Amino acid sequence: MTAPAEAPVAQSGTTRLGRDYTLLWTGQFCSMAGTMIQYIALPLWVLSETGSAVVSGLAFAVETLPIIILAPWAGLMADRYDRRRLLLLAESVSAVVVVAMALSVRAHSIVGALACAAVIKTINTISVPALQGLIRAVLPAETALPKAVSRFEGLTGATIVLGPPAGALLFSALGPSAALLANAASFVIGGACVTAIRSQQPLAAPVASRPRPRLGNGLAIVRGTAALRRLLAAEAAYFLFFGGTTAVVITHAAGLVGEALAGWYPACVGAAWLFVSMLILPARKWAPRRALLTGAVLIPAAAAFVAAMEISPLALLLIAGVWAGAANSLVASGASLGWQQLVEPDSIGQVVALRRSVTNGALALSSVALPYLADWFSPGQVLLVGGVLATTLIVVLMGGRDLADRT
User: Fold this and answer.
1) Which of 39, 47, 115, 244 could form a disulfide with 370 if both were Cys (CB 3.0 to 4.6 A apart)?
2) Tally of domains in the chain
3) What is the pLDDT of residues 259-268, one digit of tens each?
4) Cβ-contact 366, 244 below 8 angstroms
5) Is 18 left (phi over 0), alpha (psi -120 to 50) or beta?
6) Which CATH number characterizes residue 306's domain?
7) Quick one: CA dihedral 245, 367, 49, 177, positive or negative?
8) Is 13 a member of any domain?
């Protein structure tokens, strides 16, 4: 497939997204909020059990390994089978596995808890490509796509605002099992919303005439499209050099302001993410390249606030979260819209799966390497160097003519 140059963002501010999209968004809001509760509670529990920041970082990293390995097969499933049923099955099984994780935590089994986390991410590896396909399938019109993508990025920000503080609070007040059971309940609600979706639009071509998905199709599409290669490399650079920031900041902040307040860092990340994706990007109608470049220049500033955190720990923790969240939102929103615009609907699952495999591989390395380096150097120094590297690579990769914004 030869993808066009980066398309302009459609003027879709008044386009209605429809009932099915609202159900999908609501269910994923609940599901992702529960996931973010677990996201902060599990590493805090590992840190309390082991006292090791590196092992705590492993709790972040272990969840990415199934994505790296299984994403290509998950993409095949999302493009071949009913995406609504795949998502419903994923939500249902995830709820059961989270209950098993809570039992492992009560038994003080770190291996058992991390194994359950890996299983949940294995299931999530299937659900995310299915979700990406469903976003387009439930829309009443293709012109609603930019608005729909923006709203889903806003969903990410909203769940980051609510999830980590709730997870830290539940962890401190009631213990890690309470946080995990809240996540199990969120999967049940997410599955109920998916069940209520009445119908979904067919893919671009009838099943009989659509090319049979094959392992490697996603890689072939990306390799054959210069714009997609640059986009994937830019995202990988971001996740490799700055993706492990939360693991570093949470453990660093826990020693400065306490475990409960440490959860406010990802909350500020989410607040900024929500503000940018729901208000700034729809109003500005930025094309993907401009959003990525703007996010890139904010990364070193976020690292600088972490480096200065000991001067005023809580205030600078919150400010660093806001700057990091704005950077995250711009990079993620720009990349997500770029992938949706440049990839054909009947291949979106396979291509998104490849994207997730590469970016989560970079995230896994970052989640272990950055905390390890922070043990040898200061957290601020490590994040400053990583931030500058991420910014430099994104700016270089987004400078190609094949990604130039159209006017």
Assistant:
1) 244
2) 1
3) 667 767 877 8
4) yes
5) left
6) 1.20.1250.20
7) positive
8) no
What's the pLDDT band for 237 if we cut at 50, 70, 90? Answer: very high
Q: Which two tokens stand for residue 112?
A: 């058992």
CA angle 224, 225, 227 (to 5 degrees): 155
Place of tokens 């690292």: 303
**For 34-44, what is each residue's pLDDT tens digit?**
888 887 777 77
Is 377 inside any structural domain?
Answer: yes
For residue 206, is it within any domain? Answer: no
Nearest to 210 by CA among 324, 345, 332: 345
Give me 215's structure tokens: 């392992």
- Residue linked to tokens 């609501």: 26
Of 369, 371, 366, the C-alpha closest to 248 is 371
CB 37 within 8 A of CB 181: no
Look up residue 13 and give its two tokens: 């501010």
CB 402, CB 229: distance < 8 Å: no
- Classify residue 134: in a domain, yes or no: yes
Q: What is the spatial distance between Cα 179 and Cα 99, in angstroms, rounded to a whole number?
A: 11
DSSP string, 290-352: HHHHHHHHHHHHHHHHHHTTTTSHHHHHHHHHHHHHHHHHHHHHHHHHHHHHHS-GGGHHHHH
The residue type of 77 is: M
